[in-house]
Each structure stands twice: as C-alpha cells, then as structure tokens.
Amino acid sequence: MSSAGPAESLTGPLVPQRRWRVALAARSRRAPAWLLSQARRVPAAGRACFLIAFVNAAIWGFVVPPFQVPDEVAHFGYAQYLAETGKPPPQSVAPPYSPEEQTTLEALDFFTVIGRPHLRGILTPAEDRRLRSIQAANRNPVGPGGVTSVTNQPPLYYALEAVPYWLSPSSNILARLALMRLLSALMAAGTVLGVFMFVRELFPSTRWAWTVGALVVAFQPTFDFIAAGVHADNLLFLASTWLLFTLLRTYRRGLTVRRGAAIGALTAIGLLSKLTFIALTPGIALALALLVARAWRSDRRVAWQGGLTCVAVAGVPFAIYAVLNETAWHRGGPTAGGIAAATANVIVGGEPVSLNESFDYIWQIYLPRLGFMHHRYFAHYPGWELWLNGAIGHFGWLDYGFPKWVYELGRYLFFALSALGLVTLYRVRRGLQTLAPIFFCFGVMALGLLAAIGYTGIRYKLSTGHQFEQARYLFPFIAMWGAFVVLAAKGVGRRWAPVLGGILVVAAMAHGLFAETLTISRYYG
C-alpha cells in the first residue's frame, strides 16, 4: 500500500471545500465594501437625514413606555413566538401571548392604562420592584400562539425582529423589546432616506428640496410614534417608499434587468411585510407594463428580461411563503386568512355587506356624502378628524392627542400649503407632463390602498361597532408628503423657496417636540 494514498485521500476532497471557503470569505469581505460604496453614492445630506431620523426615532422609542404603541403587544407576541419556535404562530384558539409577556403586561398595568389617559402605569420604586419580582417568577417565553390582530400577517418583519431578540445581552423581555425597537427606528430612518431619494429624483436640480422633503417626514410625530415600537408597519413603509423611488427612477432612466430585479425585490418585501401591500399590486403591475412598453421601443430583449425578472423576483418568494403557510406551518390557508378576512362579504352575525354599502362607505370616509347615496355612516364628514387630525397626531392607543387649537392651526396651514403647491404645479405644468404616466400608476396604487382600507373598514365597523381607519394606514405613500411640502415651498418663488423650506422643517421639528413633551406628560407627568 502506498504511503501517499491516505494523504491524498485526506487532502484531495478538501481542495473544493477550501476553494469554496476562500470564495465565501472573499465575498463576505466584499459585501461590507459594496455596502460602503453604495452608501458613498448617497449625498452627504441624505446620510445626515438618515442619521437624524434614526436618532429621533430611537429617542421616541425610549420615551414611549413598553407596549404603548398601537398593537405593539400583538406584534411583539408574534416576533417572540417566531424567535422561540422558528415558525409563525399557528393561529389556534388559545391564549395569544407567552406567559412571560402576559404577566409582564399585567405587572405594567397595561390593560388598565390603555384608553385611560389619566392613568400612568409603573412609576414608583416599589412598583418597579414588584414588576421585577413578577418577571423573575414567570420566564416562560413560549406561548401557544393564539390568534391576535396580526397573526394572519406574513412573517418577514417578525423574522427580522428575531435577530435583535436573540442578540439582546439580557433575556429580560423589556430589554429585548428595547433592542427590537431600535430595529424599527432603523427602518424608519431607511424610509426617510427613501423619501430623500424620491424627492431628489423628482427635483434633481433643487438640492435644498431633497433635505427639506426628508426632514419633514423624519420629524412627523405620527410616523415617529409607530417607529418607536415593534410594529410591522415600519417595514411596510420602508418597502413602499423605496418602491416609489425605484419606479420613478426606472421611468426616468429606463428599465434594465437590475432595475427590474430591484422593483421585484421591493414588491416581495412589501408583500411579505403586510398583506395590505396587496392593494398596491394592480398599480405596480400597471407601472411595470408602462416601463416594459417604454423599453420595448429601444430594446425588446431588455424589456422582456427586465419585466420577467421583476415578476419572478416578486412572485417566487411570495409563492414559497404561501406554500409553506399551507403545508409546513398549517396556518389555515395560503395567506393565513389575511385576504379572506379582508374580503369577507359576510360580517359577524351572518349579515351580508352589499357592493353598494361598501361603495358608499368607502366614498364617505374620504369625501363628503352625495345626495344619491342610500347609506349614511357618519353624522358629519369624518375626513378632517380621521385623516388630517390623525396625521397631525393621535397617540397611544388613540387615547390622547394635541389641544384642539393645534388641529385647527394645522388645518389652516394645510390649506395654505395646498394653495402654494397648486401655484407650483401650474408653473411647472409642462415639465411635469412627462411624469404624468408614472404618477397615474402611483394614483392607481393609492386608489387600491384607499379602497382596501374602506372595504375592510365597513366590515370591521359593522362587526364591532368601532372605527377601523387610522391615518397611519396612508403612510405607505409618506414620500408624497415630503414632495408636497417641497411643492408648497417652491410656490413662493425661487429666491424665497429655500427659506420657506427651512421654516417648514423647523415647524416640523417643533411639532415633533410638542408631541414628545405631550407623550412624556401622558405617561410620566
């Protein structure tokens, strides 16, 4: 027997592994370099806006007490179950939270504080010691995964939140919650950066506008309140904002395979973040058809490749999720009941909801009631209170807000900004004609979202008697708020526009600071 045999048998098979490991190590070294190079392509002002937004959202996360962001208790419960078991909750008829979370909520007086703005929760050292002793006695983080308001949603956001959950240096539930909130703050900062890029693409020669548009979003208090908590809307806002930017950029510069993949990837992230995103897909499909048609004129091969790449990148991950949901996770359907719940035509009690009822309700939550409508769902037009006042700020579990004069001032300011924005649109009407097709697609996306909110809203209201709609449901289009403020600033003319833009940013900062002090007074005053 040759002595070389064993040596060859030991070293020979390892050569491909070594090559694979060397290649993997090289790629892992290149990945941070690639990310750094991409970050350097963002203007310094954009990076500054990202950092400002992250710090501001993180501060909000420390100011707002645990679980006081709407539905945070359910979102955390989903993320904890996934982190502990490796799969989404089964949506069984069982207690929805782990023993650890349930006892912590009770020790925090959570169920007493929400909805009662005169109550504060844990404040004294004695209450804090009681909380810690209760937590020490109930450390079981695995619950049965019962149904909550969010267990029918896809698992992407919660899988991402599982990372800080396990990276937390402490196994204490509140320490983990604080670290998980920082990931939401990071997503909010990414959304602000997306607004910066969107405004930059919309107004490429107006440099001050990029920062103004991003910062008015960064200090928007309703946006920041959601960013303060563990909440899947943060990933929805991030994906939607960057999708709007990518579609606009592709419309301006042409469809390529890489851009088609980016549109598809952002669509997949949106679909796997929250099922609400499905309402945007008709508009996204229309935008993709528009982009393919424009590319077809110059290069049919690129048009086909870009379009098919987009569809494949968007569809395959969602299809895999749907199959897993039905087969491996046994969660009651390919979309975990989310679509069925949103589109059910029969409410609790077995009463059907007609198409006319749905249309009347959808119209009336956005526009004044018309005389021929047979159903009156609101005694007064709800638009200002629901949408504008809600965007100005309804906080906590919608149990506190600003003084009445703030909402009145905000309405007058909104009217003034709208008038200035119309002046700008009239001045640049010829230049904007080239963007009309892609903004028509954005309009279809927005109409899909509005219709989905109303369609679900009437069924929720007739079943429970409570209002479903909230201003934050419009925030997938928060990039439009940044663009709106820039249009308003430009309405005073080229010389004074940067000045007004700066004033509006300072006003947004004051608005956010007022909301923070109001929050501190609510929970700690």
Describe the structure.
The chain is mostly helical and 525 residues long. The chain is 70% helix and 1% strand. The chain has helices at residues 4-11, 14-41, 44-63, 72-85, 99-107, 110-113, 125-137, 156-167, 173-202, 207-218, 221-227, 233-253, 257-273, 281-296, 300-326, 338-343, 355-366, 383-393, 404-427, 429-432, 436-464, 478-490, 497-524, and strands at 394-395, 400-401. The longest helix is centred in the middle third of the chain and has 30 residues, at 173-202. It starts with a helix and ends with a helix.
Share of helix among residues?
Answer: 55-70%
- Most strands sheet: 2 strands, antiparallel
Q: What is the residue-mean pLDDT, rounded to a whole number?
A: 88
Count of DSSP strands: 2
Strand content: under 5%
Structural class: mainly alpha
Question: How many distinct helices?
Answer: 23
The largest beta-sheet arranges its strands as 1-2
Give the CA-based shape.
globular
**Rg of Cα set:** 25 Å
Terminal-residue CA separation: 86 Å
| Helix and strand pattern | HHHHHHHHHHHHHHHHHHEEHHHHH
Give the low-confidence spans.
1-17
